[in-house]
Amino acid sequence: MEEKRDKMEGLYQALAQRAVEAREGAYCPYSHFAVGAALLCADGTVYAGCNIENAGLTATNCAERTAFFRAVADGHRKFLAIAIAGGPEGEPPAQLCAPCGVCRQVMAEFCGPDFEILLTDGTTYRRLPFREILPLPFGPGDLAPQG
Ligand code: THU
């Protein structure tokens, strides 16, 4: 039991570290707020993502969605956890950065209530189940034909 907990702890720490590293790719000339994400797929593959801003600000893509879209484009559909690190560009991620509403909706498409969200400042992390950050999600099941 304890062994499994230690293993998970190591895995979460490694995922958090990948999110910190992914910040280096951020393209954020407008907000100067760099975000990195690391998405753990059910088969153990990890996809990194960063925020990619745009002069037409609404075309900006968040780090979390970059990671999801990369993974989905490669054929992945099942996910276990995502680590997120954000903060002012050029500085270590000093604050916990929670996913925006649009990213939560993208998560709702592919993730169940137990999907884990790891918010990291690079040293430690806070872990929350998806159901806590998006209660009452609107998901694919809501469009299923009514019996
Ligand atoms: N951003 C993310 O990439 N993920 C989040 O969880 C919050 C916000 C980005 C979008 C934008 O490029 C910048 O951070 C400031 O909002």
Key words describing this protein structure:
alpha+beta; binds tetrahydrodeoxyuridine
Q: Which class best fits the helix and strand makeup?
A: alpha+beta
Bound molecules: tetrahydrodeoxyuridine
What's the alpha carbon Rg, rounded to whole Å?
Answer: 15 Å
Distance between the termini: 43 Å
The secondary-structure element order is HEEHEHEEH
In percent, how helical is the residue content? 25-40%
Q: Tell the overall outline.
A: globular
Strand order in space, largest sheet: 2-1-3-4-5
Low-pLDDT sequence parts? none
The helix count comes to: 4
Beta-strand percentage?
15-25%
- Total strand segments: 5
Average pLDDT taken over every residue: 96
Largest sheet: 5 strands, mixed
Secondary-structure topology with pairs:
Blueprint: H1 2-22, E1 33-41, E2 46-50, H2 63-73, E3 79-88, H3 101-110, E4 116-120, E5 125-129, H4 130-133
Parallel strand pairs: 3-4
Antiparallel strand pairs: 1-2, 1-3, 4-5
The structure holds tetrahydrodeoxyuridine.
What does this protein look like?
With 147 residues, this protein is an alpha+beta fold. Helices cover 31% and strands 23% of the residues. The chain has a five-stranded mixed beta sheet with strand order 2-1-3-4-5. It starts with a helix and ends in a 14-residue tail after the last helix. The structure holds tetrahydrodeoxyuridine (THU). Tetrahydrodeoxyuridine binds at residues 28, 31, 33, 35, 51, 53, 60, 62-64, 84, 86, 97, 99-100, 103.
